[in-house]
Design brief:
By secondary structure, this protein is of the alpha/beta class. The protein is 35% helix and 18% strand. The protein has a single domain, classed as Rossmann fold (3-Layer(aba) Sandwich).
């Protein structure tokens, strides 16, 4: 059985797309081959790594990639997770289908480290719920 290839896209491929990649791979990796990329290269957020480790998912080995780095891979579905990425690439040419599901950028949160981490946790949980609904046993993107 061939796995369905999914690409998650954010601006910097630092938090939301990295968390989505880790979540989908950990929960449904038996059915999906998962990638993430950004419209520009950055580095994986240490806060994203921290909040994912809290739920037993290790994304510390992930690295930020650009869309150009995955342009030779055919995808069944590309998902833009932020409005900026959606504006830059509303259609991903190497994907059969492109959809948009925006989540707030936790990196833009003001406050103490604890307050910022709480927002990362909230976004992680929102992404997890969406992944379960969209890609889980009852889900059909």
């Amino acid at each position: 059985m061939t796995k369905t290839r999914i690409l998650f896209i954010c601006t910097a491929n630092a938090a939301r797309s990295q968390m989505a990649e880790g979540l989908l791979r950990a929960r449904y990796g038996d059915r999906y081959d998962v990638y993430s990329a950004g419209t520009r290269k950055s580095k994986v957020s240490t806060r994203a790594i921290t909040v994912m480790q809290e739920i037993g998912i290790d994304i510390s080995h992930h690295r930020s990639k650009t869309i150009d780095e995955v342009s030779g891979i055919p995808f069944d579905l590309a998902v833009t997770l932020c409005d900026n990425a959606h504006a830059v690439c509303p259609v991903v040419h190497n994907a059969k289908k492109t959809i948009h599901r925006g989540f707030a950028d936790p990196h833009l949160t003001p406050g103490t480290d604890d307050e910022i981490l709480d927002v990362y946790r909230r976004i992680r949980d929102e992404i997890a719920t969406w992944i379960d609904t969209t890609f889980g046993t009852a889900g059909s993107y």
